[in-house]
Amino acid sequence: GTPLVPNATFRSFGAFVQGDFTVTDRASLIVGGRYQEVKAATETTPGISEPLVSRTDRTVVASANGIYQLTDDLSLIAAVGRAFRSPNLVERFFDGPTPEGSGYQARNPDLEPETSFNVDLGLRYRNLYVDLEGFVFRNEIIEFLLNSMYEAAARTGSEATPATYTRAPDPVFIPLRNAVITGLVLSAPAW
Fold first, then answer.
1. Please, are residues 42 and 8 in contact by the beta-carbon 8 Å criterion?
2. Which is it for strands 173-187 and 150-151: parallel, antiparallel or unpaired?
3. What pLDDT score does 101 carry?
4. What's the alpha-carbon Rg for the chain, to the nearest Å?
5. Model's pTM, two decimal places?
6. Distance between CA atoms of residues 125 and 146, nearest Å
7. What are the distances in angstroms from CA 45 to CA 2, 8, 52, 96, 111?
8. Mean pLDDT in the chain?
9. How many of the other CB atoms lie within 10 Å of CB of 104?
């Protein structure tokens, strides 16, 4: 059969710097920055006639994390940062029926990378007997990749193709311009 993903390379390069600073006897700050470059390129693949495609995404991201000890056991933690994620090979180049058998995914080599601005605020209680954490977070994601696939309907042949499925309005990984994800995370280790 025809390959669903062409032969391809995915290379990621990054360089980062980080500093850890003691502000007071109860407060510390960690700041960092990273340059990242990601290149995805298709290669000649038997059975695939699509033109070869190469895409490089580059960015600089940074974060700052602060910890303030309210007591010997209780700390206030805050973090703010910018993140980046380049689409993977499947998101860019997969073209065929989905493994779940419920749809058809078309390739989209022109996807933009996701970027986000993230804020976390929480408390950590830790002593000899207890280790508890609770955080609220807000992530604003630009170019959030949403998988909007061909809907499985009216399959007519033994091999799934775009023609044998009813297409959803946007039958590929599509970016939402601005997604906001908020939440609460509570954690305690299991002994």
1. yes
2. unpaired
3. 64
4. 22
5. 0.72
6. 36
7. 10, 9, 9, 15, 21
8. 84
9. 23
